[in-house]
Amino acid sequence: MSPRRFFMIAVAAVIALLLHQQPSSAADKQKFRTIITAEEIRAMNVMKISDLMNRIPGVKAGETSVSIRGSSNVKVLLDGRSINDPTSRSGAVKWSMISLDTIKKIEVYKGSGSTSYGDNTGGGVIIITTKSADRLGGTAGGYFGNNGQRSATLNLQGRKNSMSATFSAGHETYDGFTVNDDKTRNRLSGRVDYRFTPRFSLFLSGEYNDEKKGLRGYPERRTPNSRKEFDASSFLLGQKYGAVTGRTWYSSSKTVTTDPDRSLYASLEVLKAGQKINAPFVLPWFGEINGGTGYEWQRASGINFSTAREERAWVFAEKKLEWTESPWSCLLGIRANYYSKFHNTLNPELRVGYARKNYDLAFTANRSSNLPTFRQRYYESSVTKPNPALQMEKAMNYAFSLSARPDSVFSFDASVFHRNIRDRITYVRKPDNTGRYENFGKVTYQGVETSLKWTPSSWVDIVPSYTYLHALNEETGYWLPAKPFHTILTDIVIRPFRDFSLRVLVKYTGQVYVRSDNSETIPAYTVVDVRADYQYGPVRFYIDIDNLLDEEYLYVDGYDAPPREWFIGMNYNF
Q1: Residue 240 belongs to a domain with what CATH number?
Q2: Is residue 381 a contact partner of residue 266, using CB atoms and an 8 Å limit?
Q3: Digit-coded pLDDT (tens) for 62-97
């Protein structure tokens, strides 16, 4: 069945249900997302948000990257504003903007969310909500380790009457484990909330990030003098009046890359400003519908290309159906997108859920538009040429999932997913060792992900998970590079006595192809990480050892991974 026919049938079925629906007092019956609370984050004993993401089956995160089910088209929102780096090749994520201590909740939508959250959501959406201050206090901490690891953080919060404020700062340095692998990062952020009335409130937040690092290159081709400097600043004004919410944003980010050995000096600066409003409204026969509209302006400039200006606007509507005394729930959405540079799109989305006391079933299907980045279209270096004519990808995403909770000891989750991409954006290398990004080929992603949580006693948690990914270029018949077929993760937490915990993480990554013609592979590897925590009153002490067995291996993208690394630190709550 074609995607168009599928959605026509789905829409007709849901309209028929709408005309015969009964009011429901139930809340969200079906969980189409993974939710991680502040309490769960503290229990995970992780240092960075990227480490937290790697605990979720099907999600893979690095220092500045994230992918869901093999796709890097993932939108990450912080309080409603995207923190994907617009100066990167593939929407890299500025994880350094976020302190774990300031997070209230994280929501992960795998392969869905295109109606509400728009472009570049083929892999999914990650929504991070920060806390508003509820007391006067904060946290201070830091750590040190081998290879020159140093970090210091400070988080402050306070409230008086209708006003609350938070402030966060961080500094991090790393000498690296090989030549030109060093980095220095600085972070500042703040937020002020004011509640004028019970129905009307505003908040203003701002962030600044600065990073300087070396680009070491591949093991067989080091680049000992290649450097990168990145800085970004952003502001967000949040509005809430009753059920109506709005977000106004402005951001500026700049990347400068230099390499005197290749006579390379390149820069890319991107400015963004926009406004969006979401609100419920009522239509005859259909009842209450959630909808929204928005507009964003962007400008990119650099030393190797003329200034580019673009605009986009959107409107969306989605209807949630839930019935009293029925386990079924449904969400049907549609989003219309206008682009000044690309063809306009109309993207539908369908979610159907069936919830019982001990298990849930869910089916999702949606169409998403994945836009090429400014860097892919305009950035030029000694090996990459620009392609201003690059167009968007179009993807159809399907998934079926099961979540079961037979008792308090076991819980189980499993998903089967399938994704078709047309006009995939691919880096095509030419015989002279230069290349550019082009729209090329039809690609299929499909696979299975499973996870189990077993709590055999009050002091032990065991959480194994497995992901199988089939990523194939249908036109060439080759498997996609840097996409492992098998990933196995086992997370074990032991609490032998009060205030102490020991976490052991064992991760197996299967063999991957490193080149698009499948002529070279990277072998499978297994890594063991260990972390111990002890809470003594307001102070938490910890020691973390990554790559405990000192394995020598390559990441799936071909870069060499560090040998055993350790650090020791503490956090003080006041």
Answers
A1: 2.40.170.20
A2: yes
A3: 777 888 887 888 889 888 888 888 777 666 887 877
Q: Which two tokens stand for residue 44?
A: 């995970």
Q: Enumerate the β-bridge partners of residue 355.
A: 360
444's tokens: 């299929």
Angle at 249 between CA 244 and CA 255, to 5 degrees: 155
Domain range spanning residue 418? 3-573
Structure tokens belonging to residue 494: 């032991």
Question: What is the pTM (predicted TM-score) of this model?
Answer: 0.85
Q: What is the DSSP letter of 261?
A: G
| Bridge pairing between strands 525-536 and 539-546 | antiparallel
Nearest residue to 152 via CA among 104, 189, 186, 175: 186
**Which residue, among 189, 105, 192, has the nearest Cα to 155 in the 3D structure?**
189
H helix or E strand, kind and range, residue 385: none
Residues 6+ apart with CB under 8 A from 175: 147, 148, 149, 181, 182
Which tens digit of pLDDT belongs to each residue from 204-261?
A: 999 999 999 999 988 888 999 999 999 999 999 999 999 999 999 999 999 999 999 9
The helix/strand/coil state of 114 is helix
Alpha carbon distance 479, 516 (integer Å): 7
Contact 496, 524 (CB under 8 A): no
Count of domains for the chain: 1
The total of other beta-carbon atoms located within 10 Å of residue 391's CB is 16
What is the helix, strand, coil percentage profile of the chain, to 5? 10, 60, 35
* Token pair for 266: 């390149």
